[in-house]
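pasting input
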Amino acid sequence: MSTPEIIINDSELVEPPVINPGRRRSEWLMTLSEAWRMGRTRIGVGIFGAIVLLAVVGPWVAPYSPTEFVAPPFSPPDIPKMWLGSDYIGHDVLTRVLYGGRTVILLSLAATVIGLAMGVTLGLITGYARRWIDETVMRILDVVLAFPQIVLTLLFVSILGPKLWLIVLMVGISHAPRIARVTRAATLEVAQRDFVHAAEAFGIARWKILFNEILPSITSPVLVEFGLRLTYSIGLIAALSFLGFGMQPPAADWGLMINENRIGIIIQPWPVFVPVLLIGILTIGTNLIADGLGRALVGIERDTGVG
Amino acid sequence: MPPLLKLILIRIGLGLLTLFLVSIVVFAATQALPGDTARAILGKEAADKARYEALREQLGLDEPMTTQYLSWLGGVVTGDLGNSLVQDKPVTELLSRRVQNTFVLVLIAALVSVPVSLFLGSLTALRRDSKFDVTVTVGSLSLAALPEFVIGILLILLFATQVFTWLPAVSRIDPTVPIYEQLELFILPALTLTLAVAPYITRILRASTIEVLESEYVMMARLKGLPDRLVLNRHAVPNALAPAIQVTALNLAWLAGGVVVVEYLFNFPGIGSLLVDSVANRDMPMVQAICLIIAAVYVLANLSADILTILVSPRLRTGLR
């Protein structure tokens, strides 16, 4: 029957994993460069970069310590001593603004990465396995989807208490079904392509097909999801701190600052206004990036007739 | 069975299944609580062994988990959601006025945001790439990115404190006065919800309308030489109705979650702010009840939208893909 020589010949003939390496390797690069041509993406990257820079460099240039009492509570701005005045217990607002961005950005990134890892894995499996695995997993995801993201997070906070890891994890979990749906749709289409059939015929392990063959082909929609979910993560994480379940005093955190200082909004609006403004600008920036990526993806799909 | 009816029944079945699973999640949540409900109610007095045991028995905590779940579910179905741990009154009694307040708030927001997003979404799609389209698209892209508390606080700064002082920054609703006599307390929270949800919905609707306009059947109708008005009324609109219904459902579903932060921000006495308080106080029966209500609204909104979509959309009605 089959001799070793024939098998070698077969493999030379089929060579499944590298049937179309050029397109697959460069797909996400193509999306990125296409997105970069759009003005909105550049503005988005500029905004995002500026806020991240502010959050990273901020603590180095802050005039005071974030827990130092510098003036009576809710003092108005006194330039050049206190550019933005003092907060509800007399901390320097500018200092706390400069310190308060790190947590929002880091926690949001972590939640997004968790959501992406879970959602993409589930989407790949359901899109490729189909049948009852697909049905069962999608039903379970429907249950998660039935809870608005903030409500799902609050349900678990009410049980385990306001812990940072829990909030990051729950925000990630609440993203997962939405990401899984997008990944599943993309996987369904890619799973029909020749190089996947070839890999199957070759007897390559299914998890290897999933992560080595299919995943590289769907990086673009995953990239778009990353931008979109990051925007929502920032809103959710900041909202949870604002509700009092995220960062706890005396931490300097934009969401928490809004909550602590909103009773003084009439006499001293700055410790509320500046964090609100920065969070708003940050989400607009990430959303512009997501929109640019999304448009680039649609454009490329239209041009190449894929998708 | 006619295929249409079958499709609808399957959809209802799946909706009920989701609701059932949701109730299990909400119930299981309390079981994961360190310690049990009896300990939570008694607090430090739980050291009194006899009282603790008696309460455990009274609450049925000695029963197997499935029995406990079924009796809890039975209570939910008959409107008995247990007692609040904080106020020691039936949850349903504490909730009723708040549900009304939230309902009115969501209703106002939906009545404004649904027509606005339908109008803007379809008009931007029809006048694609015009100045109007670009303005609305850029504006809605930015607004859609903003978290609801950011919008709310900017509105408070603008209309209630720093720039103008036209409206109250805090919605202290008097429960002894009818709602329609204190509607001004609803304006800012409703406006916040509207500004947060309308851009998001507008963008979805614009995309789906463009899809309908570029579809083969609309192109076919155009090629047949039908005047624009007929193409729209006879071919485009019936198929665009489906997205419109989905939009309304999405809107309601979003508002169900959006009320949490917005009510807290305005001290609005609805179920959203009560959820935040109950989570902080770990009032589990209350948390369970509110999570269940919100999830049910979400599932039922989607369910009715899906059924209506099946009924109105010509493609589904005839093609049954």
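fyi Residues 270-304 of chain A form the longest helix (35 residues).
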